[in-house]
Amino acid sequence: MKSLNEIDARRVVQLLPKVVRENLVNEEGYKVFLGGGFIREVISGGEPRDVDLFVDSKESARTLRDKIRTEGDRVFKTDNAITIVRPVGLPIQIITRWLYSDAQRLAESFDYTVCQGVLWKEEGVWLSLVSDDFYADLAAKRLRYTTPDREEAAGGSMLRALRFTKRGYHIPPEELAKVIARLVGDDAKAEDICANLREVDPLRLLAGEFVND
User: Which of 132, 153, 179 is where one domain is finished?
Assistant: First the structure.
């Protein structure tokens, strides 16, 4: 893991909703982090759809909700998150299904390297973490699956891959095989699945020369 480029980190902070920027501060007994899509979309020049905040406990989630909620906001609660829909601006989601007190563990929990970004403020200093492959994969619009160690509904990463491909990303067969293996519940089968995928999507370019079957 490494830090965001200083210019990118500053831009992410500047584009955060003011109410989030002012309350994205780790204090004793209270942890909150910005993670995932907002960071990726700001850096890639895309359009963020919401702001995902991660906390260390359900109590911290309620505290944060009360800090950032303002008059006119609508608040919705599900098993996964507390969502604050504001009259103007992006929705803010406080994730409660997965709880994290450590930024690196949070970053490692995301299923694709282009999602592995975390930013937070501690002792007056803005800090960040991204995957070592974050920038290269983001520039190539490439999905690299991380096989995260976390509880999630089967097929979640597959659905996210489909959404990413609709937005211009591509997923190499090797990475898609890992996602399918996780879906069927047998990570050991990834190589066999990849071999089957290669039969219908062979490597067409070897040593700079296109190859015919």
Answer: 132
Query: Closest Cα to residue 197, out of 212, 213, 176?
Result: 176
Neighbours of 171 (CB within 10 A): 20
pLDDT digit string, tens, across residues 57-103 = 999 999 999 999 988 999 999 999 999 999 999 999 999 999 999 99
Cα dihedral sign for 80, 129, 43, 66? positive
> Is residue 209 in some structural domain?
no
- For tokens 């996210």, what's the residue? 160
Continuous segment of H or E residues that includes residue 33: strand 32-35
Within this chain, do residues 78 and 146 fall inside the same structural domain, yes or no? no
- What is the Rg, in whole angstroms, of the alpha carbon atoms belonging to the chain? 19
Q: For residues 41 and 45, what is the distance between their CA atoms, to the nearest angstrom?
A: 6
Residue numbers of the domain that contains 121: 6-132
Express each pLDDT in 20-33 by its tens digit. Answer: 999 999 988 899 99
φ and ψ of 11, to 5 deg: -65, -40
C-alpha torsion angle, residues 60, 19, 1, 179 (rounded to 10): 80
pLDDT tens-digit profile of 138-181? Answer: 999 999 999 887 776 667 888 899 999 999 999 988 888 888 88
